Predict the structure of Acyl-CoA dehydrogenase family protein.
Amino acid sequence: MVTHSKETKQSKPLPAPNSDFYDVRSTLSADEQDIVRQVREFAETKVAPVISKYWLEDTFPFELLPELQKLNVGGVAIEGYGGRGGSVALFGFIAMELARVDPSFATFFGVHNGLAMGSIYLGGSEEQKQKWLPPMIRLEKIGCFGLTEPQVGSGASGGLLTTAKREGDTWVLNGEKKWIGNSPWCDISIIWARDVEDNQVKGFIVENKTTPGFSVEKITDKMALKVVQNGHITLAGCRVPEANRLQLDRSFRDTARVLRVTRYGVAWMSTGAQMGAYEHALKYAQERMQFGRPIASFQMIQDLLAKMIENITACQCLATRMAQLHDEGKLTDAHASVAKAFCTARSRETVAWAREICGGNGISVDYGVGRFFADVEALYTYEGTYQMQNLIVGRAVTGLSAFVH
């Protein structure tokens, strides 16, 4: 029983934090809801107890991979090849549930399942899909996605400096990639390079540990997504067989198909980060006593909590509708960009309010919100900056491009 003051007592238990205010999970089928429940249980019982330690140490929890394998969530929304299948909404809810506990672990999963596997699923030949997707779905081989370069981020569509030159049945790759999640330890890198012959972007499956000329240096001293191991890849005369070129990819338009799906995923992850920060902040506010009362009973704290749940609910509903558009075959780049921009911007607000509610304790990892406060900064930027997403949307609504050529 919580005593508010000498005169007032709390007569009934306070509600447990619930960040699904509109019950959006109920839009999934019963089977998919059960999968989401299993993912939440895994995140809460396996990831949550250890993740702050790994975040502080800037290391990855490899011990969790066998437990993740047991969930059989590899290949969600991929039909065949041993994949879990299911709706695109299920993929989003899984990303949201993982990010609700740790955005870094959700990012690891998104890079592997969405970017790396998605590149092969969308751009690979049937032979390539048969070879690579089954072990990746089983998490026996982990992948990364090498697009961003030290000097090229937003301008990747027309300005990649990494080159690919064909020599018979071999392609020679030269260049660098930076901020590539999973790359310091994973097995497969999807490398995007500009073909010197036709000046078009093409994708290549590079086997990290056996390809001469391929090297990775871990990026250290990050302030966000510290559990994700990011790398700086160097390709120096890296020789890749024609059999490892993604056969259906001809230009950056094909790369953009993958980015559309992953921006969809970032919208869900940034929503999950809000959920986690909100729930930590609400629990803190219910328990933190000042002036003889829980601070959750103060008007200013309730105002912040209300604005947080409003942000979260808006993002959940937007992401759910986005999943419906995907299933209807109507999802465009602009739709994905609206979701990525809006959800990450709202996430910045929500986690900042969560840190504010926790006061000085909000900067400590021990109180839960500090990791979210830092990690959301990376989500706001990666897979295309906020401003770039708005230019994609602006082009769609005006019919005029504001991009500089």
In short: The first helix runs from residue 30 to 57.
